[in-house]
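Hi team, as promised in this morning's meeting, here are the two structures we talked about. I've kept the exact order from the run log so nobody has to guess. The first one is mostly here for context; it's the second one we should focus on when we meet again. Sequence first, then the predicted structure tokens.
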Amino acid sequence: MVLEILPVKHGTAAENMALDFLLLQGHPRPSAPRFRHYGWHRPAFTFGYAQKISFVRSSLPSGEGLDVCRRPTGGGIVDHRDDWTYSVVIPRGHPLEDVRATQSYREIHECVAGALRAQGVPAVTKQSCEPPADGATCAASGVCFQRAELHDVVHSGSGEKIAGGAQKRNKHGLLFQGSIWRPAIGAGANLDWDRFHDDLAEQLGLALRCEATPSPWPGLDDEEVSGLVEQYSSPEWIEFR
């Protein structure tokens, strides 16, 4: 069994979200999970499938021409202006797809933390959830990097959240969309991000019991891709809640 490492692509927010969803929806391979890192054409924010657009608008910075898109996964608002973004698609029937959401979240974040530690970043996964000082519950924050939640990746010295993620499961498998906030790594850290990519792929391969193998993109249907990008760019999608 192999973990297919797809080539890096840069796109708009709608393009990146559409490709992630199509990898889950139409192109999973029963024996091959997939991993990809991607970038952004312009400053972007994404937000969770279930979030209210009124909350999102009130939380975004003003005065900037931002590329904004609703994700197919859950979670909060993610600022992609200085992050390192990736996704993992695990097909239906794989042992890690079949576990509870908290376990798959933890195991993927353990891989992220391990890849960061390989370059000297004191990264760990958060092992408990304490109610915030304002007396609220442990429910996830509506803005991803405001505070760390259970199994997020945090800096063991500062406690600052380094990495978070969001998941979607359906009959085809599991989509995990992850974000690493570069400023939280620490001013003294000088990561080799190409090495981090390879280290993370290796860690994911071990967790998934697969050999990490560079692979070409699957043959996506151009009309299907353009149709979903158009949907994800539309006010009907972005503002439906």
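And here is the second protein, the one for discussion:
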Amino acid sequence: MLFKQIKCHGDNFSYIIADEDTGKAAVVDPSFNADTIIQTLKDEGLEAKYVINTHSHIDHTAGNQTIKSVFNAKIVAHKLASAKDISIADGDILRIGKVSIQVIHTPGHTPDSVCLLVDSKLLTGDTLFVGECGRTDLLGGSAEQMYHSLFDKLMKLADSVEVYPGHDYGGKPWSTIGVERRTNYTLERRTLEKFLVFMSTE
């Protein structure tokens, strides 16, 4: 499997996941950096089969149509997202050759937020950052849903799972579930009630 993290517009991260045997790839969260992503794919001899959005904010979808038009790729997003060719839901598996991508629905930042688990790599979009979690005060956000997404889903994963966020907000570009569990102040064990208070004062 080929895996690339691309930072080419402010603090946004985009990702390429590919099966090198078939030359098929998925692009995750293309921002205002479609040209760089397209050139990277061509340099690696890859063709984008899917463009997957972890959520529908413009800084994660701006490159969708450009990449779709070049490769005839399908736009993939959660069933609650408005602009998509293929709907996904919690537990779904996307396949690119021998590479499997598991969908984990993680609402809280937005209703359509998902994380993507590929082998031992977790692409967390704006749900979990290095040292932080996503905002819940924007349209469609929910601190209660974020609590369940973080503690009932992501914190159930193994410590060794690598965390690849949607933004470069931390001291390093990626982390692990174990490190975040131990050091991320937003993941300190709290009751739901205390978490709601905590998020309301952030």
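Starting points for discussion:
The chain has six helices and 14 strands.
The mean pLDDT is 96.
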